[in-house]
């Protein structure tokens, strides 16, 4: 019997489960969840107590390289968070490594006024 090695996405989901066991978003401090596909980056502000999405932004709204898209998504999510009255968040990197697009999104969100 041969073992099948877990895929990259299976490993990411395992990391994400581990992260989510400690990170919880509330109305006062929602969770900034990041998702990265092969083409786009998206972010959501989520209140886990109510199960509501407060604000969201997606990379398909912007043109350019993926790192530029991620920075634009971070900027927009910060603006939408301010409009919703949110200033502090809990960052959920979704099991992705904190580099390149994820870091760009986080830096842009911080520059836009979000604290985490």
Report what the structure shows.
The structure is a single chain. The radius of gyration is 15 Å and the shape is globular. It has one domain: Nucleotidyltransferase, domain 5 (2-Layer Sandwich), CATH 3.30.420. The protein has helices at 8-20, 66-83, 100-111; strands at residues 31-36, 41-47, 52-58, 90-92. The mean pLDDT is 94. Helix content is 37%, strand content 20%. Helix 2 (66-83) packs parallel to helix 3 (100-111). It has a four-stranded mixed β-sheet with strand order 3-2-1-4. The chain has 116 residues and is α+β, with helices and mostly antiparallel strands. The chain starts with 7 loop residues before the first helix and ends in a 5-residue tail after the last helix. The longest helix is centred in the middle third of the chain and has 18 residues, at 66-83.
Question: Which terms would index this structure?
Answer:
116 residues; alpha+beta; Nucleotidyltransferase, domain 5; 4-stranded mixed sheet; 3 helices; 37% helix; 20% strand
- Please write the string of helix (H) and strand (E) elements: HEEEHEH
The first-level CATH class name: Alpha Beta
Low-confidence stretches: none
CATH architecture: 2-Layer Sandwich
**Oligomeric nature of the chains:** single chain
Task: Show the helix and strand layout.
Layout: H1 8-20, E1 31-36, E2 41-47, E3 52-58, H2 66-83, E4 90-92, H3 100-111
Helix pairs in contact: 2-3
Summarize the structure.
This protein is of the alpha+beta class. The protein contains 3 helices and 4 strands; from the N terminus they run αβββαβα.
């Amino acid at each position: 019997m041969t073992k099948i090695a877990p895929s990259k996405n299976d490993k990411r989901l395992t990391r994400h489960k581990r992260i989510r066991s400690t990170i919880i978003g509330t109305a006062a401090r929602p969770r900034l969840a990041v998702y990265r596909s092969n083409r786009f980056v998206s972010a959501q502000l989520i209140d886990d107590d109510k199960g509501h999405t407060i604000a969201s932004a997606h990379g398909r709204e912007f043109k350019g390289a993926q790192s530029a898209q991620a920075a634009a998504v971070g900027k927009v999510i910060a603006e939408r968070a301010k409009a919703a009255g949110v200033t502090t968040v809990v960052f959920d990197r979704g099991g992705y490594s904190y580099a390149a697009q994820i870091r760009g999104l986080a830096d842009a969100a911080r520059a836009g006024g979000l604290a985490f």
